[in-house]
Amino acid sequence: MQLLISVAGPAEARAAVRGGADVIDAKDPRRGALGPVSLHRLAAIRGAIAGARPLSAAVGDATSEEAVAGAVAAALSVGVAFLKVGFAGVTSEARARRLAVAARRAVETDVMTRLVLVAYADWRSVASLPPARVVAVAADTGAAGVLFDTATKHAPLFAVESPAAVAAWVAAAHAAGLFAALAGGLSGPDLARALYLGADVVGVRGAACVGGRTGRVSRARVAALRALADAAPSLRVPIGRGVLPQRDVELAEIVSRDDEVFHAVRERA
Question: What is the pTM assigned to this prediction?
Fold first, then answer.
């Protein structure tokens, strides 16, 4: 399990690296779930991490084949390991495929970069595809992985989708040969639940920040996540009538009263 921390600038990137994040994700939280940072800022973030961690970048929701190819090419010019593309405003699966193919063709110019397509749990509110269809599009167009996120940020992932539905989505992604990432206001019990549903990556912004998702990433909060992750046992989580098989995990449960946990970790240090 990989811990991805979303950052808006180089200072936050350094804090996330020093705190122990596995992947650094560049995005502007003021511009939505997939708000891209400027190329200048993306380059500054890349310079700040200096190859210490893989860099991911959000390029926004695809609006046209030309626009998404251009956005991907621009990010590739800076150098990133992962590129995230969403489909808000796209309700046609055929159109989503065309957009995804345009993005993948642009990504193919750099053999080190992987394409990640984003499904929204609140897809109806942003006129997007159902999450299961995004998995199908990703599998059909050569993407490397999929991310299950929330578009509006009005509610966390598990307030929009049930654990059973998320578990089924993760399983479908794996069956299609894709890696599966979860994000969307994941903190406290929501984040803990996501960790044990089989996701390969868990993305965090708000729980790693002082002042919420539009605040600033704190090295101490990222370090607390990392310390708890290293100490976390494997769990069995009931889903519906069944039980998920026990899994090895690398990210710990974060209880809902985050500040008390961070204080306790500092006291033990």
Answer: 0.85
